[in-house]
Design a protein that fits this description.
Number of helices: 15
Helix content: 25-40%
Oligomer: single chain
Largest sheet: 5 strands, parallel
Strand order of the largest sheet: 8-3-2-12-19
Distance between the termini: 20 Å
Mean pLDDT: 91
CATH topology of the domain at 419-524: Methane Monooxygenase Hydroxylase, Chain G, domain 1
Radius of gyration: 22 Å
CATH class of the domain at 419-524: Mainly Alpha
CATH architecture of the domain at 419-524: Up-down Bundle
Number of strands: 24
Strand content: 15-25%
Length: 528
């Protein structure tokens, strides 16, 4: 290992009241709810358009209909979470979520309407139509509205194409961040007494995923290295309807398609979910994926079919982005069913936070997919993720204002910072190692898990885990590889410990749910 001390040019531009890492809905919502009296820096690995939020198709769930209620939304959330949702968190999100949605409407998010009523859609796991949407580009509509609004605020500075690498710590508390510009040469330091990690999930640890290439768990890994607790890492949600083709990221076919009547079929053309669940094609995601997994094992299926041939032009208009993408890729959903497979979609685990979005490290917050609030339990209810980002963005902003912290660093002499570099793996080698990691995770810790495979994966990961714990890398590729390796280790370790099947966690050797022994949430923290 090579260890090099940083040389930092201190000036007033290095200091902020709050630093937000990430430009998806979680980061932008936090920035939106912070008062304009605070000096705020928002850094992002790429741009808003590269975030998972931007790609979010289906919509955002909220009980705004006169036929609906927060209590009913709560019941659906807890049912979908398969026994592990934190009921206090879920109650907060479904109640405060309605207020946040009203604020987004007032801000100008163009949720679709029919006459004077919102055109509410229904998705998997919901007992009623409650999904507000903008066609199948809802995430893009919310993110662009927030971003455009925030661009007019003088207290905000945005820096894009900035790779966040590590947290600056002083006496066990957060004092800022270190990162790199696109060229990944000289480190850049920014200081603040409050840092919000909103860097998204880590589903790029899998070979088959809907996530953008930026979803490499950078914020979760950095938080863990700094001493923050992580939780629920074994729960990675696979989406059942992802187009089977070779492009990366894979094309998600929104659950709204099934909400409008699309049917899942076996390769022989038989109805997949008929007689399997009372919600049929709109069963919770883990139920649909589990049914697929059963038939993959039993019959050797490599894909399933999504039938939209009966759709009217109005139905296709609701999924216009997906329809357009399918046509571009050579598929015609008007004439033939579309081949689909499950793929890694949402990272339920992350940095453990309390009801204010605080991690276990003073001054460090987490929001969105990088966080683990307990809302989703063992399986996320469709379209609750955008809502969670809005609700906790507001809660984090309120916590920062109500409990201000003093800067951890006031001048250069107070800071002793070391950047840990590895000399062993370079960019091309890291890319090769990452491909191997992805295959390992798909085969041993993907949809279907069993003890022997998990033990093999853990053995492969143990050595690289120790490297990942101590090193960041000399290139972006290397840093991303180490981050994903570190988090993969904990996905596998917690999956091995959970000897049952619950939600998105499917163990062939323990096919039943075991409430007596495993109605618990697993946590981990870096050993000193």
């Amino acid at each position: 290992m090579l260890f090099g001390a940083m040389s930092i040019d201190f000036n007033e531009k290095s200091y902020f009241d709050v630093i937000i890492i990430g430009e998806g809905i979680a980061g932008l919502a936090t920035a939106y709810y912070l008062p304009e009296s605070l000096k705020v820096l928002v850094v992002s690995k790429a741009t808003s358009e590269a975030s998972s939020s931007w790609l979010a198709q289906g919509g955002v769930a909220a009980s705004i209909s006169k036929y609906d209620s927060p209590e009913r939304h709560l019941e659906d959330t807890i049912f979908a979470g398969d026994g592990l949702c934190d009921p206090d968190v879920a109650r907060i999100v479904v109640n405060e979520g309605r207020e946040r949605i009203v604020e987004m409407i007032q801000l100008g998010v163009p949720f679709e309407r029919i006459d004077d009523e919102f055109d509410l859609a229904r998705e998997g796991g919901h007992s009623i139509a409650r999904i507000l949407h903008y066609g199948d580009q809802t995430g893009q509509a919310i993110v662009s509205t927030l971003r455009n609004h925030l661009s007019n605020r003088d207290n905000l500075i945005f820096i894009e194409n900035f790779f966040f690498e590590q947290l600056v710590m002083v006496d066990g508390e957060v004092a800022g961040i270190v990162g790199y510009t696109k060229k990944f040469n000289e480190p850049v330091l920014f200081l603040a007494p409050a840092v919000v990690v909103a860097t998204g999930g880590a589903s790029q640890m899998f070979e088959h995923t809907t996530n953008p290439l930026t979803a490499t768990g950078d914020g979760i890994a950095a938080g863990f290295r700094a001493g923050a607790s992580i939780a629920d890492m074994e729960f990675v949600q696979f989406h059942p309807t992802v187009l089977k083709d070779e492009r990366t990221p894979m094309l998600l076919i929104t659950e709204a398609a099934r909400g409008h009547g699309a049917r899942l079929l076996t390769p022989e053309g038989e109805l997949l979910m008929e007689g399997y669940h009372s919600f049929k094609d709109l069963a919770p995601r883990f139920v649909v994926v589990r049914r697929m997994a059963e038939l993959m094992l039993k019959n050797g299926y490599e894909y399933f079919l999504l039938d939209m041939r009966h759709f009217s032009p109005e139905d296709f208009a609701h999924i216009r982005f997906v329809y357009s993408e399918l046509k571009k890729r050579g598929f015609d959903p008007e004439k033939e069913p579309v081949p689909v497979v499950p793929a890694a979609h949402y990272f339920i685990g992350g940095l453990k936070v309390d009801l204010s979005g605080k991690t276990t490290v003073p001054g460090l917050y987490a929001c969105g997919e990088a966080s683990c609030t307990g809302l989703h339990g063992a399986n996320r209810l469709a379209s609750n993720s955008l809502l969670e980002g809005l609700v906790f963005g507001k809660r984090i902003a309120e916590s920062i204002v109500s409990q201000p912290r003093q800067p951890g660093v006031r001048d250069e002499n107070e800071l002793q910072l070391t950047v840990r570099r590895s000399s062993g793996v370079h960019g091309k080698q890291a890319s090769t190692k990452l491909r191997r990691l992805k295959r390992l995770m798909d085969e041993k810790a993907g949809i279907i898990r069993y003890e022997e495979g998990l033990k093999e994966a853990l053995e492969c990961l143990e050595e690289v885990y120790l490297e990942a714990l101590e090193n960041s890398g000399n290139s972006r590729e290397q840093a991303e590889y180490y981050n994903l390796a570190l988090l993969s280790y904990w996905v596998v370790r917690m999956a091995l410990n959970r000897r049952e099947s619950r939600g998105v966690h499917l163990r062939l050797d323990y096919p039943e749910k075991d409430d007596e022994n495993f109605k618990i949430r697993q946590e981990a923290r870096r050993e000193k």
